[in-house]
């Protein structure tokens, strides 16, 4: 892909649900081609933020720009067409289908344009199917699940399912990947392996990654920059080393 990652700029974002302010004026910038972490205790507003970026939730006010394009007024499929893909905190895979078929689902955004003509030209359709399978295999190799392509998802470990979920998002060739709690429920060993994978994905594909995480140690060795939310507000931002020492961050995490 020749598409380039752009800067993501979140400016004074507010989201209210009835009387609850899930986000109260949050701003941060994800530089192109970096790994940026959005962390904070449960209920801080992290998932809400991803939901606005992906178009699932509407912002009450504020703006989000991906490059020159304002996202908050666009429907989810238009945001996906701009190269923004996401995973979910709770997996959204087809459990009976194979890993390969789950990854091919992620190709639909790319393939949509060409489908009608393919039906009339079988040799070309077969060639394109081979290309699609090769693309999916390359992504699976990057994620270390290429040996599992023929397996049904329900036979996989939880950690491998998380990789399939990430692979399906990557199959759409995003320039910005949004990951919601990529290591939730994983063992320490699995988390560290996932950090290596996320770093490899960023370096190999050159995209930007915004990851939401509850687990602070996990993001420390991985993210170049960290934004910390608490009760819908940004309480700190900086390098992992800086935010780790910030008294307000320690207070939010330790509840003291
Ligand atoms: P986090 O992902 O950091 O744990 P969330 O973004 O899920 O936090 O939630 C932030 C706040 O917004 C919480 O108080 C939560 O109950 C509320 N919230 C999130 N989504 C909705 C929704 N769809 N309807 C009502 N309240 C919501
Ligand atoms: Mg969440």
TrEMBL record:
**Protein name listed in UniProt:** ABC transporter domain-containing protein
Identify the residues that the record assigns to the ABC transporter domain, covering every copy.
8-256
Superkingdom, taxonomy of origin: Bacteria
Q: What family does the database annotate?
A: Belongs to the ABC transporter superfamily.
Q: What is the lineage of its organism?
A: Bacteria, Bacillati, Actinomycetota, Actinomycetes, Cryptosporangiales
Q: Which organism is it from?
A: Cryptosporangium minutisporangium
